[in-house]
Structure formats: C-alpha cells, structure tokens
Amino acid sequence: MSDEVKIGIIGVGNMGKSHAHQILDGKVPGAKLTAICDYDQSKLDAFKDTEGVAAFSTSDEFYDKADIDAVIIATPHYDHTPLSVTGFEKNLHVLVEKPLAVHVNDAKKTIAAYENRSDKSKIFAEMFNQRCSPLYRKLKDLLEKGELGEIRRVNWIITDWFRSEAYYASGGWRATWAGEGGGVLVNQCPHQLDLIQWLFGMPSKVRAFASCGQFHNIEVEDNVTAYLEYPNGATGVFIATTGEAPGTNRLEVAGEMGKIVIEGGDIQFIRNEVGTLEHSRTTDQGFGGPATWDVKIPIRGDHPQHNGILRNFVNAILNGEELIASGVEGINGVELCNAMLFSAFEDVTVELPVDGDAYEAMLKKKIENSTFEKGEVKEVHADMSSSF
Ligand SMILES: NC(=O)c1ccc[n+]([C@@H]2O[C@H](COP(=O)([O-])OP(=O)(O)OC[C@H]3O[C@@H](n4cnc5c(N)ncnc54)[C@H](O)[C@@H]3O)[C@@H](O)[C@H]2O)c1
Fold it and tell me: 176 partner at 20 to 30 Å CA-CA among 214, 237, 259, 315?
C-alpha cells in the first residue's frame, strides 16, 4: 500500500483554498495535493505558481484526468450530491464539506452511491470539524459512561453565528433557495445539528419556528427556534440566528444526575449526590434538590478543527484509523434541518424520519415562487478561523 494519498479538491473558494493550503504547507502528513477544480478561473489562478497541482475548470474534466486517490468537495451545497456520487463511481475516497446535502433525498443518493461503490475499502468522511473539539468529545465520553444518568433536557442557544450583509453579498449562491437551499440551518448550523445528534441521538418529533430575512436582505431563514422531543420523553430547544451580536453559544444538558453546561470554552458539571427523581421520592423536605458537587472536568488536547478531519481522513485511508465523522452519519443533521424548516414553513409538528419527497416538494415550490433578486456579488474578506 502507498504511504501517500493523492488528493484533489473541487471548489477552491474560501474553504477549499484553506484545505489546499493545509496540505501544501505539509500540515496533513501523508497527503499530497495533485489537483484542484473550480469553474472560477481566478480561484485557480491563485495556485498557478504551485508545482505539481493540475488545475481543471470543470468537474467532468477533473474526474476524467486528475491523478488522484481521494477528492475533497468544497463547493456550494447542492453540488455536494452529484460530485460525491461521481467520486464513488470513480472509485475514490470522498471527504465532503458540510452539509452532506441540502435535503434527505439527496443525502440518501450519496449514501447509496457510497454503499454501491465497487471497492469497499474506499472511505467516506464529512468535514464535521467541531467533532474535534475536546469539549464535545469529553461531553460525549461523560454521556456514554452514564455520568449524567438519563437525559431530561437539552438546550442549545447557538446565536453567535453573526453574519453581515457583506457576507451574504459575497456569493451569488448564498442565502437563496435555488443556490444554497436554506440559511442558518443549512450553512452555519450543520455543525451543531450534527453534534446534537452525535451526543444525544435523534429526536422523534420536531416543532419549529423560523423567520426568513428578519435581519438581512436574504430570502432564507436567519432566525430559528425549534422544540425537540426525544423517544425517552426528554425535550430540547435549539435556537439559532446569524443576526445577533455578540450572541451566545451555550449547550446545557440536564440529566437525572445533574447538569453540564458548555459555554465560553469551558465545561461545567454540577453533579447530584443522588438522582433527582430518587431524591424527590425519598426526601421529607418540600423544597430544595439533592446536594450537589462541582466537578472539575480536565479537558485534554487541542482543537485541531479542519486539520483534525483532514488528518483523520488521510489516516483512515492509509492506516485504517476510525473516522471522526463518517459521511453516512451526515444524513442525521440534514434530517434535523429539514424537519425544522418543514415544521416552520408548513406550521406542523414533524415526526421523524422526515418525508423526503414532501420536503423536496416544499423546497422546489420555494425556488419556483422566489422573486428575490440577489444584488451585485462582491468579494469579502474571509477569515475562515471565524467560520467554524
Ligand atoms: N467546515 C466548515 O467549517 C466550513 C466553513 C465554511 C464553509 N464550509 C463549506 O464549504 C463549502 C464552500 O463554502 P465556501 O464558503 O468556501 O464557498 P465559496 O463560494 O467561497 O467557494 C466555493 C467555490 O466552489 C466553486 N464551485 C462551485 N460549484 C462548482 C462546481 N460544480 N465545480 C467546480 N467549482 C465549483 C466556486 O467557483 C467557488 O470558488 C460549503 O459547503 C460550505 O458550507 C465549511
């Protein structure tokens, strides 16, 4: 087996360019960038002095001619599906940017192509870089060990995804139903929608409310509040917007044995000495919960973000390392996103799994009925470190 993975990247805009430089700068051991593809010539020109990297202006030519073992897909969302499907048909390893797809029907097409690939050793990963966070990894570990007992409530306020009008003007595809397929849930929140399912599993019901263009001149949602119900009766609230500053990123989990809060780069665990319900059934006191301990949780390791996923993808190919985020799991976040938007726009409670055809039909209607006119596209300064 080779000790090097030849990688091609489709879409070298903000994110794809950043991945390319990680590889070119030697920050992904075992990876070699051999091809890039973008239909915007100016994006390819940025690499014209880079030796050994072939540039293609169409994905057809890229897939036919590039000397690659693996492809990273970093285009706008709708193209994730056809480009991933072709990647598997061409017998490549595939790493797709988030979200896996705009809607569950497309996510299923990609997963089917992966499952039908001729060489079953080919890897399918997704760029869920926030799964590399030591905070969320620690929380997962605590939950799996049952430290919190049965989960009762999950609240995630994720309102620090602020985006300006300049951001939305920076790409013709951005924040349109036809070009992007949604707003804050499709672009920014795939990370949290993935983490919430990774940590707590899938809810059985979703009821959501969403406003489109409440804070920006856009036609898609920029403010969402969703209520989630889990099979064990636990409930959740998920609040997201790109229109608030400074905003909040606070994940609070309440369980039988206490609560954990992740906020401001910290994890706080307040542990009950005895379970809440056990205390309720056994105490002769009318007020006050069980005694608690403040548990200091050591957080070890750094947060390598995208580099962590890139390294893991290459190590999975070369050494069989377990994937941090398999592409197949990407459908769950897409499902949550679709459930929230369907619930909000159709004014119904959605029972999961989502009806993919009904969702696609709703989205199609939004595209057909769109009268929104996107203004002039202007380049914007993009610091990818603030877009995780
Ligand atoms: N993981 C993260 O933290 C993170 C952060 C930002 C963006 N992203 C994701 O990265 C992807 C791209 O976002 P971006 O901000 O880089 O967008 P962008 O507009 O800056 O770049 C996209 C590039 O793809 C090119 N392109 C589009 N369709 C193409 C096609 N079919 N073939 C070849 N080239 C094509 C465009 O010309 C453009 O240069 C999106 O899926 C986005 O959600 C992920």
Answer: 237
| 221 CB near ligand 1 (under 6 Å) | no
CA 330 to ligand 1 center in whole angstroms: 17
- pLDDT surpassing 80 at residue 380: no
378 within domain boundaries: no
Digit-coded pLDDT (tens) for 279-316 = 999 999 999 999 999 998 989 889 999 999 999 999 99
Q: Is residue 192 part of a domain?
A: yes
Indicate if 138 and 88 belong to the same structural domain: no
Q: Name every residue whose Cβ is closer than 8 Å to that of residue 113 and which is 6 or more positions away in sequence.
A: 84, 85, 88, 89
Helix, strand, coil proportions of the chain in percent (round to 5)? 35, 20, 45
Alpha helices (H) along 66-133? 80-89, 104-115
Can you tell me the distance from the alpha carbon of 244 to that of 192, in angstroms, rounded to the nearest whole number?
17
Among protein residues, the one with the nearest Cα to ligand 1's atom 24 is 11
Asked if 117 and 185 sit in the same domain, the reply is no
pTM beyond 0.70, yes or no: yes
Decide if 176 is inside a domain. Answer: yes
Q: Is the CB of 330 inside a 6 Å radius of any atom of ligand 1?
A: no
- Residue 211: strand pairing partners: 223
CA distances from 248 to 11, 156, 244 (A): 31, 9, 9
Is there an atom of ligand 1 within 6 Å of 293 CB? Answer: no
Pair (142, 220) in one structural domain: yes
Residue whose CA is at the smallest distance from ligand 1 atom 40? 76
**DSSP per residue, 277-324:** HHHHHH---SS----EEEE-----S---HHHHHHHHHHHHHHH-PPPS
How do residues 232-277 score in pLDDT, each as one tens digit?
Answer: 999 999 999 999 999 999 999 999 999 999 999 999 999 999 999 9
Question: Could you list the residue range(s) of the whole structural domain that residue 174 is in?
Answer: 131-301+333-368
DSSP code at position 354: P
Say how many Å lie between the CA of residue 224 and the centre of ligand 1: 24
